[in-house]
Amino acid sequence: MHGLVVIDVQNDFCPGGALAVSGGDEIVQPINALMTQFEAVILTQDWHPAGHSSFASQHQGAAPFSVTQMPYGAQVLWPDHCVQGSPGAGFHMELETDRADLIIRKGFRPEIDSYSAFFENDHKTPTGLEGYLRTRGITSLTLVGLATDFCVNFSAVDAANLGFDVTVRQDLCRAIDMDGSLSAAREGMAKAGVRLL
Ligand code: VGL
Ligand code: ZN
């Protein structure tokens, strides 16, 4: 059984948003069209409490897009984004959310970020998505969404390591691409056995 996982197609990651990904809105209609071809559709939603520890605003003197050391490892510090209940955390207005079987929220613990749909950034704390997919008999996943080099990348690598058959539709993703993060993400996904289309 084949599932479509739509990563973080939210207002803050689209042009005009707090952490806008260039061209983020261009993928919405083609993703809607793709949903009809899958037996299961899962959406992820980046969902941070105000004052989340991944926000540069919470680290004195830290600039957005700088890197800090957290107890669980290196963490990029972001502009405040996807704050729970804010318009920026909402899905893009044209995304067909009615088609979703499951919406999984992540990044809701104040002290840890979660790029991946499967594990928080300590690579240990599960989100529960693996259990959902397995109990539904979904073994093969196609990933689309935002951003290619962060949440799509981490989700795809984790899914492949968990034994799912994983495809990333790069044409239906857009990247942040800071300091070579996109090419590093492509290499990491390929190495993990992710099919890059
Ligand atoms: C994301 C940075 C911070 C993403 C989420 O969806 O790729 N990136 N939070
Ligand atoms: Zn985030």
UniProtKB/TrEMBL annotation:
Its EC number is 3.5.1.19. It comes from the Bacteria. The keyword rRNA-binding does not apply. Signal peptide: none annotated. GO terms for molecular function: nicotinamidase activity. Pathway: Cofactor biosynthesis; nicotinate biosynthesis; nicotinate from nicotinamide: step 1/1. Keywords: Hydrolase, Metal-binding, Pyridine nucleotide biosynthesis. Pfam families: Isochorismatase (PF00857). Gene3D superfamilies: Isochorismatase-like. Residues 4-194 form the Isochorismatase-like domain. InterPro entries: Isochorismatase-like_dom (IPR000868), Isochorismatase-like_sf (IPR036380), Isochorismatase_Nicotinamidase (IPR052347). Belongs to the isochorismatase family. This is nicotinamidase. The gene is pncA.
